[in-house]
Write a structure and sequence with these properties.
alpha/beta; UDP N-Acetylglucosamine Acyltransferase, domain 1; six-stranded mixed sheet; 3 helices
């Protein structure tokens, strides 16, 4: 069984490699992973550290940077953030490994609080993409800029905007 610290290090290493040319993304994701690590650590020290790290992460990223990526969101290793501004992710969304999120992306619920998207491994989401509701975007899919996705996308598919045309 891996500890929260080991998991943090593995996730952060993958994020660091995926964002080698993007220093802002590296800072945001290191902070995100550190907050996740302290959230997973039990005991008074874990709670205190989460309050400090998670609180400062939330204030700075949401308040000043316009990046709403909650610490409670399940995110696989190697997340690639491109610019990040205007990013809104519902905490109940699930994001796989090696996913790219560009600025203006929204992953949100449709009817209930947990009615959120599942983004599988290797998916690329273009600028301004909105994925809404309990949909699955299959592994390796590419979603074009400003597309609105409200139904499942098969693995490897390309979704074009503005009318969400799906090509398999």
């Amino acid at each position: 069984m891996t500890s929260a610290r080991q998991e943090f290090r593995a996730m952060w290493a993958a994020d660091r490699r995926a964002n080698a040319a993007y220093p802002k993304s590296r800072v945001v994701l290191r902070w995100f992973r550190a907050a996740q690590r302290w959230r997973a650590t039990s005991g008074p020290l874990g709670r205190l550290m989460f309050l400090a790290v998670g609180g400062s992460y939330k204030v700075v990223t949401e308040g000043f940077m316009g990046i709403e990526l909650p610490v409670s969101t399940t995110v696989g290793p190697g997340l690639r953030l491109r610019h990040g501004v205007g990013l809104v992710v519902n905490p109940a969304s699930r994001i796989g490994a090696g996913v790219m999120l560009r600025h203006g992306v929204t992953l949100g619920n449709r009817r209930a609080a947990d009615d959120c998207p599942v983004i599988e491994d290797g998916v690329e989401l273009g600028v301004g993409v909105v994925v809404i509701g309990a949909v699955t975007v299959g592994a390796g899919a590419r979603i074009g800029p400003n597309a609105v996705v409200h139904r499942d996308v098969p693995a490897g598919a390309v979704v074009l905007s503005p009318e969400s045309v799906v090509r398999s």
